[in-house]
Amino acid sequence: MATCYTIFVNCISLFLVPVTTDLNITRAQFNLCLSISAVVGIVASLVVGKLLDKYNARLIGSISIGIIVLDLAGWAFVRHLWQMYILAFITGFCVLAGTRLLISVLITNWFDRKRGLAVSLALMGSGFGGVVLSPIISWMIINSGWHRTFLLLAVITLIASMPLTILTFRNHPYSMGLKPYGADEPSAKKNNKTADSPIQIDVGFKLVRKSSAFWMLMLGFVFMGMVNGGVIINISAQMTDAGHSPGFAAMILSVYMSSVIIGKISLGAVYDRFGLIAGTVFGSITTLLGVISLLFSASAIGPYVFAVTFGFGTCLGTVAPPLMAVNEFGKKDIGTIVGIITAFEMIGTAIAAPVTGAVADHYGTYSPAWVALIIVTLFMLVTLVISVVLAKKFIRRLESSIRNPEVA
């Protein structure tokens, strides 16, 4: 998360202005790279989600990192737009499905208690990586150019990520003779520690896909992907367009990444302590405040408000998928379900990334895009909360049919 995911998701906005200037391309053309990766990521998420339910996570993770390292090195030799698109296609196979999805599913399998906190701690690597890498990337781009910067990032990723993946990744604690954390606690005791009762029945994807709760959840994550995809890739450009220096833009990105670290821990704790609705509302409101503050980027305080609030809100995109999946539908086929959630989230990203760039190219400002994303954020909040309510009713009906099969 601190290298593979951070570079291509959280820090890619630092490359927008230098790359578009150097290659003489538009922002919409650059942002299309994210859309290509997102579309490919849809397929990759579905495939990797199913593979994680059956095959070795260590092998999947190692192959993903190897491909990402080669992909980063390839960016160092880009001279034409078509080369960017080919590399973006390769990126889509690995960055989301091979990092975020992989880690989310593994943590879900290893923790029954404090799952929200565990997921948050694992995924906050993206925030930590952003804090560390943002100033380094900005300095390298200014002093050595963006081509050499990508080459350095390839080396950093290989050294930092590959050994950790090989040594630590295991699909289930049972493969090491262990049990998930909290597995031995009585169900009643677990229920007292969270607002959401754990799902006690095996549901599985074949039943889940027939529920309205599942499809409402998918719609919510499409909206979430639109918000994150539309904002994250344009952060640096928004700040420089507002009259700030590239150094200031990099600093705001670092503040944003610092907020992500705190935000992921906080969001996970809220989900653990107060339940899905409280966590979702908390994340959605901070997202809303973050997008609104982008309209005031030229002011002295606006960029800082954005960095803090959106840093909290964007954590929904990584923390919520495994937690909402397992708390709404249980652990059976969790890899498949989280993979599908990630795929739908990428649909939203694929839509919003080029559209926001096109808006900036056409109007000379991102403001119309931010207004649209404010509305999308409200839709996201409503659909996600409705999915939680519908899921509770869905599980109650299943439990009732099991207790009284003659009624069902």
Automatic annotation (TrEMBL):
Main location: membrane
Top-level lineage group: Bacteria
Record key words, sorted: Membrane, Transmembrane, Transmembrane helix, Transport
Alphabetical list of SUPFAM superfamilies matching this protein: MFS general substrate transporter
InterPro entries hit by this protein: MFS (IPR011701), MFS_dom (IPR020846), MFS_trans_sf (IPR036259), Proton-linked_MCT (IPR050327)
Membrane topology label: Multi-pass membrane protein
Protein name as it appears in the record: MFS transporter
